[in-house]
Amino acid sequence: MVPVPSGRPVVRAHDLRRSYRTRAGTFRRERKEVEAVRGVSFDIERGELFGLLGPNGAGKTTTIKMLITLLLPTGGSAEVLGHDVVADAREVRRHIGYVFGGDRGLYERLSALDNLRYFAELYGVPPREQRQRIGELVEMVGLTGREKERVEGFSRGMRQRLHIARGLLHDPEVLFLDEPTIGIDPVGARELRGTIATLREQGKTILLTTHYMFEADELCDRIAVIRGGEIVAEGTPADLKQRVTAGHVVEVETFGLPETSVDAVRLLDGVRSAAVEERGQAQVLIVQVRPGAEVTSLVLGSLDGVNVGRVSSREPTLEDAYVELVSAEPAGAPA
Ligand SMILES: Nc1ncnc2c1ncn2[C@@H]1O[C@H](COP(=O)(O)OP(=O)(O)OP(=O)(O)O)[C@@H](O)[C@H]1O
User: Fold this and answer.
1) Nearest 5°: CA angle at 78, between 76 and 81?
2) ABC transporter domain location, by residue (predicted)?
3) Does 334 reside within a domain?
């Protein structure tokens, strides 16, 4: 195990920032600067499974790319196992593995085994160790019996598990998994979560990004929710649930709900937040209620003239906490 300077976490991001320069427009090309990551800080301790959660474009991949030395930060700093990701990039790379969700990066016409042999060679795994290492990994990711088949016949879940095996060939101590279950059916995704849990049990330090709150809840020791390039909440899954377990949720099914009515509901006394979810023909208004408040009749009052269907009340879930965190107006945002 690689020693970390005493008192230092395995992964540390400190006020990490990254902007992208892009050009917009076809005729009058305008330069635009996108601040994808705006001062992100967190620590991951040895053996921890840390989740970075956020909607599309929140800055998760950009953060990971800086930590794995694929992208230079435009501000702040980060270190992995005590090595700075800019100054000691080579050292960082030696000790990390990463897996991005998606299909690319495998040789379709080679078998799983040949892919692993090829990458083992590329990653400098000593030839004497390759056979055993590959055998162990094939077993760990549940591909035993299929390893001689060509990758072109693999399902997305199988490919993703092969990606994980590939990322582990050089036995890295720290693993970065960027949306590993994206696009995989529920059974495949569950198997993959099992693989990730096994890695954690083996003592790997893992950073996982996902869009799925339940996945983070099941796997992670700690979670940071990122939105608009900033961390808006951090804690254990239980901490985050705590934020919404006081109070309840009222759901109102409507047909043809105008945005002005949603705004009116948001301003009601006792309402913490309101969001709309499309379900078939209906728009379901989901209202998070402050503890002790009773808002159903007020909500229905402000929906005067709107075609209302079923009205129900339920306990909040972790998903509600997440939706509230990622859909609230950012502090200082223009009205
Ligand atoms: N190469 C790039 N050039 C310009 N802008 C970029 C580039 N890569 C990312 N961005 C922008 O930076 C922001 C953050 O993107 P990033 O991919 O880090 O988000 P994410 O949280 O990983 O999203 P997703 O869940 O969709 O993968 C977005 O606004 C995105 O459009």
Assistant:
1) 165
2) 11-253
3) no
